[in-house]
## 1
Amino acid sequence: MISKKWRIFICIFVSGICIAMNQFKLIPINQELMASMSLSRTQAGMLTTAFSISEAVIILPAALVLCRLRERATTLLALAFALVGTVMGGFADHFALLIVSRIIEGAGVALIAVVLPTIPVRYFSDGEQGKPMGIQAGYISLAVLLIFNIAVPLKNLFHTIKSIWFFTGALYVILMLLVFFLVEDSGQQEDERPRYGAVAKNGIVWILAFCFLGIGFRDLSYTNWSADFFKEVYQLRDAASNLATSMSYAGLWLGSLLSGFLFDVGIKSEHLITVSGGCLIFLGIWCFTIPIGLIIPFMLVTGFVMGLGVSCVYMKASACSTSKSDAAFAVALANLFLYIGYFLAPTISGAVIDTWGWTADTYAVEVGSAIILCCGLLLIIMEQKRKNIN
């Protein structure tokens, strides 16, 4: 029988996956959306950018919301934002209204992004946190994997791209009921506010934040457009292109899961981040020249390598905080920089592709990988200095 802590974790984890589907649901239908609303690739990128702006604005206050409302109410609030934005987007018939719906959806993702990474710390003991942390670190990956592989079948089944909005809306209603009846707040009441100044003075937190910026920028500089690239250059069909792109996120979740287990057995997170960044630089060379027969294994390996660093950021951010309130703010700050990466990548890479073509986007991809590598090296240097002092 599933224990209470795992039941709560699963409910919030599944909610996180479904809410995160909002962020990526436009990518599998980019071309159809651009055609139906007469959008340029830069405008299509702005839809993702607007979403990320909303996340960036909400993410830091979300830490305070979590401390005040606790886990259950904050998750319900995140689902409510996701539902309202989804319904509005489903009925949007022009670009401006769709932008507004993306902003509302982004608020829901920001809230769940603070709740979910803190669940292992709040409900599990110290020796048990690595596994749930590794599992939850891949919730975005699983969201992308799902939406990339159900978007086109839903569109074909109901003969409209808007079926994706109404499908996710139904999921949010069901999840709100499940969370309401099955989730209980953790037993530790938090009267204290996060110590914003203390967290902001922690150099490790800032390095982790920049690492997430690199991960977000590297991720969407490539995967935001890879499905379109596979369709245009390799002439793959919609479903095949989306499947190939989703393999990156399947690999990312597996990498996150493995790093959670490695963390529990004593492997240092800074070493995993450094390995991740170095391998991503190497793999990035072939982003737009990989032979067609190697697309799926290439995407799997690329995602797996990136995933090694993702859960390490969450674990390190929580571990270097002295209280659960501070940990929530440290996670929020790291996620803020992830969203800055998500905010910058689609617009910059979309403009690069429109101006210089597909292969020029390799430079944007490699910038993100280099940031990850540099952050990993800085963490190793700081850890070595700390040991020398002690």
## 2
Amino acid sequence: MKRVILIALMLIAGATMVDAKPKAKVPMGECIISVGTVDVIGEKARRWSVENGKTTSLMDWKKCREAIADMLADCDCDIYAIQEADQPIRDDLPRLLKKRGLKLGYFWAIPNPEATNQDQQLANGILYRKDRFKLGKKRTFFLSETPEQFSRGWGEKRWYRIAAACEVLDKKSGQKFFLMTTHLSSRAVNNENSGSLLIEREKLYNDNKYVSILAGNLDSRPNAPLATILKSHYEDSYGKYSGKKLRGNYLGWAFDAKRLRSHNHRRSYIYIRQGASSQCEVLSYKLHNKKYPIEGYDTYPTPSLPVITELKIK
């Protein structure tokens, strides 16, 4: 009887060992995503522009926040890079977008939430579909000579500028990609040094592993020195744009539609870089050129048109 029990135990152990063999890895599938970048313009910047006669009172955040939410919902992106997300924006957008049926996760990059000078801080955000994506380690750094410290950089007098970066897992396909967003200064010396810093940090955090996306308001013309710096590392997704009439994406507070005809009036960009373990193809590039009703007037709710790219990662 003891021999029978011993043999049975040996058979069970053998079966367990067979089951414990590592399963073959399932190849990762293709990942097709839409990425949008939108400078929503912070509440304080809007208020200052209205009070100083730069734009009309329609651009007050409380008057146009519903239109901003409609615009983001209409863009229907899988993941958004948002710039100038100050506290009123961060308070209102999740509620407004949820009301429109968007089930999003939020990663807000805030320079220093404890500091009293919130009106001098440019916060950014990454908004993503919670049912599809999972964010890895979230990182932030300042656009300055001391990126790990709460600081301004290269002669910046007013804004504390920050970048948000993270690895993103597409749960459906198993693909990963790296995403970074920020809002640069229009001052050339700050702009160019920030561009070099963005490349340096991308190399540090991503180390050429995954497809890398840089999206944001870079506040620079496409023929400026910043473009040369970034194109030494990235590819501008605008190269896939087939539109003839709409070339620019920055209207200015005067909302001059003529600017949309000129390639030189680009301020928002989506750059991509191939990875060692994955490759990216730009399927499309488009501008969301739509006006929304604000207090009886059809107008743009932000002077920067949303830029949207559809990407295939494999």
## 3
Amino acid sequence: MEFWWASFIVALLFVASNVLIFTVFKGKRELCRRTVFFCCIFILAYKVIYYTYMQIIGMGWTKFPVEYSALTYFLFTIVVLTRCEKLMPFAIFSAIVAGIAYNFSFIFSVNSFLPPDEPIFEYVFAWLNHSLLYFCGMLLLLYVYPLNKKLWWEIPVGVAVFAGYAAIMQNTVLKGLEMDTTIIYSIATGSLISYVNPALEGKWYFYIWYYPLLIGLLSGVALLMFKINTAKKYIPQPQEEGEICEKTAEGERAEERPIAEEEETSPTAAETDLEDKKEEETASEQPTEE
């Protein structure tokens, strides 16, 4: 592997980002929230400027957001900045998957990235933006947002929408252009396997195990994401908050009840004085012993 040094650097940086996530940012919800907010502003601003500039210089459809990660840049940043919690599960899922896929692809297949066909800064910023997606997605998952399990369905629906969009673009406006097939389209059609074993491409028995494996893998990642999020006790879960409030209210009522009972059963000062006088009168009426 000619560019092993680049693969080694990216691997070290990926490990370093996880060290930061699980040490420096652990349990610091407000710090995580602010960090993600500013990272999202940077990603969104950079991508808007980048795609606008590419259209100005006439790059056309060759520089248009079609890939899964390219769509995730806009989905994730807009969802976070607008605090659209209903789309948060799919946004976090997409950010983490895009970041992991890019970093691992670079580490284990660095020769497909280098030497660069385009200016080196584009590859540097591509790595930076994918890594920020992963970094921010993990911070939200671990320390900030309690995910609603009832919204699990939006992950498979969202993936299907992204894949459908890529398929439409690949077979319409991108058809005939001198550019590689989009990765998401290659994964959806199974043509990506040609890089591993070209003999399997197009074989009917290949799809019998390929699609169940792909669906199972994505489902496993989504299930693990919800499990991790629920397991983090310092993220206030909605159901836990309700239980805590009910328990607190019951405790307060239980504490108030004995006090009220004591107030009802305890004699007043006037009643106590009256009883003392009666006792004195009774004692004075009794004959004394000589």
## 4
Amino acid sequence: MNKKNTYIMLSDGKFLESEVCCEKVKNIIKPFSRVVCIPFACSPKFLFEKSDKEFSYDGDFYKQHYGHFEQYDVSDFYIINPSDPIGFIEWKIDHCDIIYLSGGSMEELKHMLKSFGLWRKIKKIESKIFIAESAGALVLQDKYIVFKNDIPFRRDGLDMVDIVNIFVHYDKEKHEDLFREFKILSDCTCKQSFVYALPNNGGLIIEENKVTKVGEVYD
């Protein structure tokens, strides 16, 4: 695990807008911070056909995701567009204090990061803040487990966070048995020390080896 970064792991980025989350992270997301959103977990059709419109200042994607950070008084909010020159993409990442991995498909996110040569670059980043929701939060982990039709699969991630294994979009009424199986599989197959279930109104802050629960979190 890269202990020089701070990680905020979420199921839903909208949780950043809540009072309970803001109280916990306002000392991390500081005024005048610069944020770059990496939306590569979105579908290829969306990224390559709609990104110019959606990622502009008046686009729905931009407004929705910038809205998560508006109350923190960030100075800049960029979105990486796959049509950007690679030098401009790298400049956005280097220039910003906060890297935000938005949600979608884990496999698409990994494929796009590797295709654009960003997989290794991100793994080497130090002294920044990573905010990751859903697919983004899973891919930051060393190994992560996903269920498809109630069948578990283990996948490799970026290996930037190796002390937690998370179950995202947890609904206690629907997923309690599944989470019990998830914990057993995590203990057997993943090196992460702590296992958590994150509803959409919960998250984790990871600083060095310290894990702080925010909102509704189950273990």
